[in-house]
Write a structure and sequence with these properties.
By secondary structure, the chain is an alpha/beta fold. It is built from 20 helices and 13 strands. α1 packs across α5, α14 crosses α16 and α15 packs antiparallel against α16. The structure holds iron/sulfur cluster (SF4).
Amino acid sequence: MNNISLSKSRYCRVVQCNKMLWMDINKKEEAIDKARDSVLENGTKVGELARGYFGDFVNVEYNKDLSKMVADTKKFLKDAPNIITEASFNYDNNFCSVDILKNDIDGFEIYEVKSSTEVKDIYLDDVSYQVYILKNLGFNVKKASIMYINNEYIRKGKLDLKQLFTIKDVTDIANSKQDKIKEKICEINEYMKTKVEPEEKISMKCFEPYECSYWEYCTKNLPEKNVFCIAKMGKKDKFELYDKGIYTYEDLLNENLNWRYHQQIEVDLSNEVIIKKDEIKEFMNKLTYPLYFLDFETYQSAIPEYNGTWPYEQIPFQYSLHYIEEEGGELKHKEYLAEAGIDSRRELAEKLVRDIPENVCVTAYNMSFEKGRIKELASLFEDLKEHLLNIHNNIVDLMIPFFNRWYYTKEMQGSYSIKYVLPALFPNDPELDYHSLPVVHNGGEAMSIFANLGNYSKEEQEKIRYGLLEYCKLDTYAMVKIWEKLNEVIKE
Ligand code: SF4
């Protein structure tokens, strides 16, 4: 069975955009995949956990030779009633594996497992495609459902799968889509035969439900600076302008746009540097000694690991803290990084209150994140609450001068994120280059690698821990450098 041409993931890609599958087959090398590691890992863990939802089950092991999976499924099906995970079927070169199949005497119940906390439209297409294959093979599909994460579940003791998952019955929707699926499959078969690159207009489908990895390829003929480079403008608004033929910076200048968008374009075209000294000075006066620079790293797990946690809660596992005790004083550093596989929140909170005295000025970049985590810790630990809330209330956001565009250059590309502000203020400074860090280069990597730390050997863990410490340390060092730069510009 080497000629299986459609799988459920391929089918869903075509539902999003016909050209995606054509590109997968003919120009795969053009794909630029955005890091979705933690999303994929959560999906795998959730899928494996969900297998036990209905009790004992038999699993069809993955095999590159899909016909082997189909043959194994056939064997298991004979033992009805039973529960089969990854039950695999092929109808007319359309292949699918069903996450959970309840093989009852009088027919099937199928469950598609998702690590999301909501049912997206694309999931309905996914399930409907599976129903199409099973029905065409002559099976009775009594029920088709989506099993997804209940974000209101709070873990109390042992993990409760019945509480963690929500099941939505989508049988009627799946049945109503059957004719359309047949049509779509015929269309896809024709489409896949063509060697001529299809024309496909870019639109919201390039980002919904998932960001397409061919975006750069499909927009290669647009001018380098175009409407899609405008920071913080909603995608729908961008496409509205694009569809009207308004996409160059010159064209956009004639539009009645929000001041931020307008300013981004104007500064880009004029090379002007905006520095509002009085506003920056007033802001800097709020930063008093001893001065602390704080940054947290967190990870999120779809499956709550500890008592009192909920799906996708941000669990802080690390912080970096630079500080200067008095004017002209030495720059010092403290840090915390949890051991793998433990609930580190108490340890982290205890160390944080040891490291940051009460009533001192603390800065964070985009402080709502740090403040949110500190508040959560304060609500967990009554004895540390007062001190933690004192830290919380003394945080000043170092992002403010950039958010308010009191300091702005074209290199910031309309953004106030530290990842844009830092290289704009310190171009080509190797000391501040995240790319040259060992192991971890961004928050997503930190999150993903820490969540899996326990799976590495001791030696590897040491290297990773060093990488995490260096990464987080650079985050607060970068804040110190930004603060120094602001000091410089107000003195000039
Ligand atoms: S970028 Fe848009 S048009 Fe191009 S393949 Fe992806 S979804 Fe289709």
